[in-house]
Design a protein that fits this description.
- This protein has 590 residues and is an alpha+beta fold.
- Helix content is 51%, strand content 11%.
- It has 19 helices and 10 strands.
- The strands form 2 sheets. Strands 7-1-5-9-8-6-10 form a 7-stranded mixed sheet, covered by helices on one side. Strands 2-4-3 form a 3-stranded antiparallel sheet.
- A hairpin with a 2-residue loop joins β8 and β9.
- The longest helix is centred in the N-terminal third of the chain and has 25 residues.
Length: 590
């Protein structure tokens, strides 16, 4: 333990620095004043006052500096000497750690992932609460039990925050539950102060600090209920709440300071003991009563904000017990800024019942009528089978069996379809082998597509070149738009997938035009040593098989010869690329 003289020096220097920093901040500007009083980086000020502080906020900051200096003077008092057992010693260290966190340690912790900060706060609170139950001489099993229950409610709120950060299962976050958790935290303060009073070793000043910290709860609860977030209000209000929060640190520091064993108080008379029991029971029971929702209120378990609602699992990947939850996520989804299928105040049970009614609807008009009865904000949209499949798989599966598949089954079906489509395409020049080559179906966008690109995807100007190629496509009689490292080849048939063969040769091939409707040769450049055709990948547009790098000579200029024909098998393209410096555009067969 540090000597009392050193504690006094530390306390004097710290308070002097706070006051001097506030005066310097008043001279240097708003950012420095904010940092000197609120003890947070100037960047945080941008969220509260991006246009600077008004006179009221500056006044509040100066008053807050004086108040925080006074509170810091109380926090840094030297610990009282005296014997401490192992539990009391651990409690003192943890209380001082909590005080240090509220003063300065929160800042470096904010640089770590939010999960680490939430886990640290939960572990620290749990350890302090357990040691409170063991160290404080409650002198009543009922008071100790009530304190344990209040601590459990308080820790439930911290656990909910930790689970939220970890994207795991959370407690229901409705307003009534949130109020119950806050009242549970207030109850834990009340019972701890009562326990300290009955223990007898803590001074009246410490008890006053404890009751004052309860006043902070009384300040925060209505502000959270009325204004939702303190940070969303004025900077002055944020500073007031920040300053009031130090009262709790004063109480924890005083509790740690006066932990050495003192004399016990005399037993209370029976009448006073009964009054204490009634008060304790009321403090414990009232938060629980506040958490009980009216019977007619909506039971809301799932919402689009839960971590499990951020992805759309396939029907076949879900167990039967998980399918209702998947439908509720979709029914309450606001993806893309659209309103949900059902209003937020409709219970889960009602949403599921309406969902099954939508499955039984004979047509879109009947679905619209059901959604209007439910109070939907978008009744004319109806309901899609890929949403309803989770509540009525037997009905949807009769007409859309593909919606019943698992992810693995869907992938297998897509792979089989892709292989079948690629198998119908043949190499039109089987005797001319390219250095690299590939043949596949090229899938075009169902609602209309310009065609396909032969381009350098790693070129810094790739996007600009592709846009310019689109513009030039419709000005060219052959339907090929070229701009630098991009050539856009249009299709002849209206919205039809085509068979595409690409080959890279080292020299110019013979001019073979027989059997082709159109043969055109254009220049193209590769600035990074790559030329290829987009592949289908995870989307619905592109080549159905891997496409090779056609720039076999590395960076430089190439010639691109495009053969096009339409027959009974559909539209077929052959693209041949070879090195060549010519910039001429040739129509070998119009």
């Amino acid at each position: 333990m540090l000597p009392d003289g050193l504690w006094r020096i530390i306390r004097t220097v710290a308070v002097a620095l706070v006051l001097a920093a506030a005066v310097a901040g008043l001279v240097l500007g708003d950012a420095w004043l904010w940092m000197a009083v609120v003890w947070s980086p100037p960047a945080y000020m941008g969220f509260s006052a991006p246009d600077g502080f008004d006179t009221l906020t500056v006044t509040v900051l100066l008053v807050a500096a004086l108040v925080k200096a006074a509170l810091l003077w109380l926090i840094l008092r030297a610990p009282m000497p005296g014997p401490l057992d192992r539990r009391a010693r651990a409690l003192r260290l943890l209380l001082y750690l909590a005080v240090a966190y509220s003063l300065v340690l929160w800042l470096p912790m904010a640089l770590l992932p939010d999960e680490v900060d939430a886990a640290f706060q939960f572990a620290l609170s749990a350890a302090i609460d357990v040691l409170y139950l063991l160290v404080i001489r409650w002198r009543s099993w009922m008071l100790r039990t009530a304190a344990g229950a209040a601590f459990a409610v308080e820790l439930a709120g911290a656990a909910d925050q930790l689970l939220d950060e970890l994207d795991l299962l959370e407690l229901r976050s409705g307003g009534i539950v949130a109020l119950g958790l806050m009242l549970g935290g207030a109850a834990s303060v009340v019972l701890t102060v009562v326990g300290q009073w009955r223990d007898g070793r803590w001074s009246r000043g410490t008890l006053i600090a404890g009751w004052s910290s309860l006043g902070v709860y009384a300040l925060v609860i209505p502000l959270n209920l009325l204004f939702e977030e303190i940070a969303g209000g004025s900077p002055a209000m944020s500073v007031v709440v920040d300053t009031a929060g130090l009262v709790g640190a004063v109480w924890m520091a005083a509790t740690a300071r006066e932990l050495p064993t003192g004399d016990r108080l005399a037993d209370l008379p029976p009448a006073r003991r009964r009054a204490v029991r009634v008060a304790v029971a009321a403090v414990v029971v009232l938060p629980i009563i506040a958490m009980i929702s009216p019977e007619q209120s909506a039971h809301l378990t799932y919402s689009d904000r839960l971590a499990g609602c951020y992805h759309r699992p396939s029907f076949g990947d879900l167990r039967p017990a998980e399918r209702d939850a998947a439908f509720l996520c979709r029914a309450r989804s606001r993806d893309g800024g659209v309103p949900p299928m059902f209003p937020d105040d409709l219970s889960d049970q009602a949403v599921l019942a309406y969902g099954r009614a939508l499955c039984r609807a004979k047509d879109r008009d009947e679905q619209e009528a059901i959604l209007r009865r439910a109070g939907s904000a978008r009744p004319t949209w109806g309901a899609d089978p890929w949403d309803l499949v989770y509540v009525c798989p037997e009905t949807v599966g009769a007409t859309r069996p593909e919606l019943l598949r698992s992810t693995a089954e869907t992938k297998a079906a897509n792979d089989a379809h892709l292989a079948e489509e690629n198998a119908r395409c043949r190499d039109p020049w089987p005797r001319t082998k390219g250095v690299v080559q590939a043949t596949a179906t090229y899938f075009l966008f169902a609602d209309g597509d310009h065609g396909y690109l032969v381009h350098d995807p790693e070129d810094a100007a790739a996007e600009e070149a592709a846009e310019q190629a689109v513009d030039k496509l419709y000005d060219d009689s052959a339907g090929i738009g070229v701009s630098g490292s991009a050539a856009l080849v249009g299709h002849v048939e209206d919205v039809a997938d085509l068979c595409l063969t690409v080959k890279a040769l080292r020299t110019a091939p013979p001019r073979r035009t027989a059997g082709w409707d159109q043969v055109t040769e254009v220049p193209i450049v590769s600035r990074t040593g790559r030329l290829t055709v987009p592949e289908m990948g995870e989307g619905e547009v592109g080549a159905g098989a891997p496409m090779p790098n056609l720039a076999i000579a590395g960076k430089g200029r190439y010639r691109l010869r495009v053969h096009v024909r339409v027959g009974e098998a559909g539209e077929e393209h052959l693209v041949v690329v070879y090195p060549g410096a010519s910039r001429k555009r040739l129509k070998l067969k119009p």
